[in-house]
Amino acid sequence: QVMMRALRTAVQAQAFHLVYQPQVNVRTGAVVGVEALLRWTLPDGSSVSPATFIPLAERMGVMLHLGTWVLREAARQAQAWRQAGAPTRVAVNVSAAQFQDPQFVAAVRAALADHLLPAELLELEVTETLLMHDVPRVRQVLQELKGLGVTLSLDDFGTGYSSLRYLQAFPIDTLKIDRSFLSSEHQGDQVILGAIVSLGRTLGLQVIAEGVETPAQERLLLALGCEWMQGFLYARPMTVDELDLWRGAWG
Ligand code: G
Ligand code: G
Ligand code: MN
Ligand code: NA
């Protein structure tokens, strides 16, 4: 209850900001994009994890509002990087409330138009769970989004229940392998990892591994044919200023 009241106040006071985590092609060294991640800072300076406050925001019915702010703020920042001569594709996590909103495609179109952002600099991350319901509508929405020119990635891939048929039916560009497949020592998870990478390749999808923390994980992924990576091994989610510094050091 205390948390709920604080969240309601935070939404009004705009006590949120985005941090950005680089996604790199380890073979070429290119920064292929960044993922925007939402942060809520409390008045005392501490911060609450989105894993905690996003489900709360969903239940309170403010996630649509918050998610729309994220989308627009990410588009604004992507345009700022572009104008600074460092065009960077920004990936935004889409919440259930947004995806189910009949105005979602219009909101994405407006975010691009209002910030004069080329659509290829925006990626939308959806989860398998979002895609499970009402397949014809989901397909329609995804096709309209693709029609705008944005790219689509399937987040936390491998942890949900999406059927392989959906994968073919939906115009997804990228699979994001869930980090649970990396963190585990189980031999079986490495087999799944390999299977996801080949599945992606067979379907003509880009594959990116999330949660890469060690050189051993990087080696394994490269051996399996996955070159795109995101994780603490390269960088944590960072503020814009920190990211600029990181970019300079990354080269
Ligand atoms: O950044 P962090 O690891 O703390 O994020 C925790 C969870 O919150 C992740 O599942 C992430 O996808 C989700 N998340 C972070 N930012 C956003 C956001 O802007 N919108 C939505 N819908 N989820 C987010
Ligand atoms: O669900 P989603 O994939 O959007 O969540 C992204 C979350 O993963 C972010 O909260 C981010 O902070 C976290 N994350 C990113 N890289 C790593 C990593 O290398 N290790 C761990 N444990 N978490 C990571
Ligand atoms: Mn994500
Ligand atoms: Na993920």
Automatic annotation (TrEMBL):
Domain EAL: 1-251
Protein name per Swiss-Prot or TrEMBL: Diguanylate cyclase
Span covered, complete protein: 677 to 927 of 936
